[in-house]
């Protein structure tokens, strides 16, 4: 989520004919640079620097975990020691020293777990408030006021290594929905966690997922029982605050038969000169007729113009559509991070299941993004759709990497992929690396990709209507991204639009 | 590490089984190529660039066997075209079946042992350039160990096409041919190639197209069901030059055709196309790498595959636009028609772009024959088989239309019709 900037536009600008109000708001929102780069001064308790079995034990102990969980972590850690960091992505970054990081950081005031949000350190609450994430239940997210019926969004707020609090828990409980920190779920619902944790992204899946399996400290757990339509949108907001600290969160979402949930994820971090590591895992299990929407606005600190600082973001996200007619929709807006390595995937196992992936990836200055999706069609009559919009500016490199595979038994399946890249300036790069594997003939696979620059005619049109160049570019880019922006829940769409403009700041001229 | 060692060992074993000691002008280039090969090793299935094709039978030191194909009374390809024929039998030049090469200004690699030769500036040079960013070890092996080949230098417009004919007469033949073609400024040549070549055929064609020159290349790879081939085309294009290459592949247990094209002069045009038809034990891989290193160049890749009874089609295509290669127009299409449940299409169409004022696109589709179109034709009284054949030819038409010479295109179409008639279920 982040800051939804409220503008009192009409007072300041005369709305010109042919330019709608929303456009001006968007462009206005470009005012600041990275908005979430401030730091909360709060006393923090760290685990010793570096990574070894003792650190894994310490994290497990801090979370008050049962023995089986510790064993699970240790098995992952031992496995990780034998693995090599993948280097196939089109990303160029110096060797990461895994011993030169803190793997656990927790605000001291969280020492005794607060029983309710009222007991949470006001400094932490203020932090989230400043980010535009109210942790009080009577407050609603900015930007959605004025809707006929005020929409509620339940929030789980993760600060460095711990979950600060979860809102609307009681109301959700009435509907049978479990929404809590994963550390809490391990203690309170061990059978559910045991059954599903690692069942979509196994411990040995890849270097970063295995690291996460060993050291994840917190994250969110969502369980939607059979036939329940989650009464409100769920959201997790990740904030990295402490210096030299990696964040390793783990999210597990289980949607039972016929259920539905829409889940939002947001992330920010302060400006720092050194790189910080973020390696998350998200697992989603979707049973018969259930549907999950997962939307992300990734706005980690991207580093400065010269590429100094910024988050290294290595994320494994996967949804397993186990049941027939199940459905998953990934929507992501990737504007932050110095390095993005992320491929939210769909395993379409159930017959007639559906996977969708909508992505906007913006890389400016020295940012590098290698992101895309995997659509693995295993069941009959499965459908998938990929719409990816990559925007490169400055000296940034932006790669779409994707896999579509039609298993021999996935008969009568369909895939449609569209990847478009937009280049702004002649120092950046835009790349497309799709893998297409078709192993039966009744399925249809279509892939299209284009690369182009911002259209001069469109720019000229905007300029001739009195916009300056940056405004014009932001408007054209928002138009380029429209298909994806429309797939976002409303409160995200507005923020994403203004983020698009901010991320491109300084890319013109 | 163990994998790399195995690759290096395989390269040593292969080199040891071949005669790589050569004297004369090409000796230094061959030695360099052997050094390159020793550094990279031979490919293995685990290599990303060989993800969809198992190179084992192309790399083993021991010869592989392939039964001979009887074409019956079918007329040889390009028979009606006035051309200079140069025949290689299992990789060995046969003067008795060939026209006199000197009339067309062609020299034979095996015969030219002088110390200084124009081809010295090209032999292995474009191949070496083509080794980055992706290694092509089979091409380095070829440069090091080629036994035969033709050296063609063209000034002006060549009188008639040169036709290289590769006959396969021995079940165990293992042929390595390396051709060098140099088109001087404003020159024009059509090169025809046909025939399987050998049980296992490794061929490299290096083409230097100078400013304003035009090169047309049409080949058909022979229909021996069990033959294997690894071929490479390395081309460098000067300003305002034209390069057009079309390949027809029907049958063959394993074919890997690589085309590595570099557009180095402004306003150059490069088109590379392929039509592949496979039935049963057929694995066909088109791997293309086009580098745009100059302004206002155009490149097109058009690859179509028709597959049945478990045949596998692979396409790996890449357009690389270097910084400064503004106004590039790059297009790439790879499509497959799967005629039954068992066939597969595996594709990796890539774009890598470092210039902003470009227009690049690629498309890739895979699917069965269009039932609606089939129904339409049948409702107009066209018998099922004929209707299918018509739709298959229509599907391949975009690739064949890359052949400029209508007589040659007609020959290729006739070949395809013949194949479809024979492989009718």
From TrEMBL, chain A:
Tell me which residues make up the SUF system FeS cluster assembly SufBD core domain.
Answer: 238-480
Top-level taxonomic group: Bacteria
For this entry, list what GO says about its biological process. Answer: iron-sulfur cluster assembly
Ranges that cross the membrane: none
Q: Please state every residue range assigned to the domain named SUF system FeS cluster assembly SufBD N-terminal.
A: 173-229
Cited Pfam families: SUFBD_core, SufBD_N
As recorded in UniProt, coiled-coil segments are: none
Which family, according to UniProt? Belongs to the iron-sulfur cluster assembly SufBD family.
Q: How is this protein named in the record?
A: Fe-S cluster assembly protein SufB
What gene name does this entry carry?
Answer: sufB
Automatic annotation (TrEMBL), chain B:
Q: Where is the signal peptide?
A: none
Name the domain of life this protein comes from.
Bacteria
List, in alphabetical order, the GO biological process terms annotated in this UniProt record. Answer: iron-sulfur cluster assembly
Q: Where is the SUF system FeS cluster assembly SufBD core domain?
A: 171-395
Which Pfam families does the entry mention? SUFBD_core
Annotated protein name in UniProt: Fe-S cluster assembly protein SufD
